Amino acid sequence: xxxxxxxxxxxxxxxxETSEPITLKVGCVAEGLDAQLSRDGATRWAWxxxxxxxxxxxxxxxxxxxxxxxxxxxxxxxxxxxxxWSSDPEGRLAPEPSRLVVGMSASEARTLASTFGQTxxxxxxxxxxxxxxxxxxxxxxxxxxxxxxxxxxxxRIGRAAIPPIFQSVVxxxxxxxxxxxxxxxxxGNLPNHxxxxxxxxxxxxxxxxHVTASGMAAVSAALLAATQPGGRVLLQRDLYGGTWAFVTxxxxxxxxxxTFVDAMQPGAFDAAWSPDxxxxxxxxMTNPLLRVVDHEAVIAFARARAVVAILDGTFVPPVxxxxxxxxxxxxxxxxTKFLNGHSDLTAGVVVxxxxxxxxxxxxxxxxxxxLDALNVWLLERGMKTLPLRVERACDNALRLxxxxxxxxxxxxxxxxxxxxxxxxxxxxxxxxxRAALLAFEHRGGGAAAAAWLDALDLVTHGPSLGGVETxxxxxxxxxxxxxxxxxxxxxxxxxxxxxxxxxxxxxSDIWNDMRAAFAAVSP
Length: 523
Fold this sequence. Notes:
Elements: E1 7-11, E2 14-18, E3 24-26, E4 34-39, E5 42-47, E6 57-58, H1 64-76, E7 80-81, E8 85-87, E9 93-95, H2 106-116, E10 120-124, E11 130-135, H3 143-149, H4 191-204, E12 208-212, H5 215-226, E13 232-236, H6 241-253, E14 257-261, H7 268-271, E15 277-283, H8 295-305, E16 308-312, H9 323-326, E17 330-334, E18 348-352, H10 354-367, H11 373-383, H12 386-405, E19 410-414, H13 424-431, E20 437-442, H14 445-454, E21 460-461, E22 471-473, H15 485-491, E23 497-501, H16 507-521
Parallel strand pairs: 6-10, 13-14, 13-15, 15-16, 16-17, 21-22
Antiparallel strand pairs: 1-2, 3-6, 4-5, 7-11, 8-9, 10-11, 12-18, 17-18, 19-20, 20-23, 22-23
């Protein structure tokens, strides 16, 4: 976005910048749901849904030049722009690129909002024509529909609302000489695969997607596809333990070099640059301390140096943000976690740019990391409830973080919504400060933390995350047990640290169980 554009208006969770303040003729009323345009007794309604100050209605006649700059800024920021809409004789909304919306009824305006999502900017003269300038997906805009329906076969297979599982290994062969027409589970191109790939790409705002047999299969495929022997990868220092083990052992044995960078320090990637760097790899939010790098700075570095930017997005699912739209070339997930959400399968996902995804698909095919049809079907089922699950888990996590912050046995709480978190500002800017995970330091150290875990009843003492149930673990005995103690200490991962992956139970029930565990350890 043009750095000269300074003035900010907030529409839902997104920030739109313009060079000058724009005259607001009408503001949101009540709970920010409706705005009324009136002049000389004439009334026009615009349906607006957003948080304060919400979507805005702008006076087009007085701000035409500013609106043109705003329109350009919106386009650059990834907003969908619509020249105008009008009502047909039957009251339905129909696209008319050369016309404005005139005389919208409240019901028509509601239809407009439901069609294009809840975050919208409408412009028009007070009491006169109103047009939708642009709208953008927010956390609740359209993604719930995409999670359920994107990628569905049409027509439906056997008229079934839920696609069947294609368990067959053998399919009729087409004598085309085209390898893409060969259907085979290891190729990841069965009908179940195709549906999930399309759905994932839609959810992520990516060109393409491919599922793998595990999260680590996704990580390894992305790194191998993005680099060549002799190349170097710059990685943030505090990585997931499995990724750390892969890059320091296997990736190096495959001829790549790796350099770990303190990604939280400004300019750290530029300082680590060398001509053999081919990729940069970071995590959306680190495990287990939930640190958030300046992802916009990472993208700027990658573009300036013409290297591939890879992100592990597992901790921040696409309900909360879409890193491909920010500029990441490849994004990986452990689909075992939030995307599936039911703790009953192991899977991974790679999404990203089309050219790179072709390479990823080839690596997965050659190394045998494809996901079988049954688990693809289960993953498709799990994704349908992704928005609901993530929203509830995030709400629960924030409540628990606040409760823990005031408990006498807790030395520190790590959650991106808390002002005490070092990366609260960047997390709020990128994904609204929402997270379904937290970590805290038990004041009694490792022994007390272990005893606290054993005293839990409702909360399961177990690894993983993103399921409907709440899980708690000590990272030193799970995800980071393979990391040398000196490295763990440098990462800030101590024996008394407990990570909590918050589920969707009643928050009060989770907290009562945790509070009872504290009392059992230090009555």
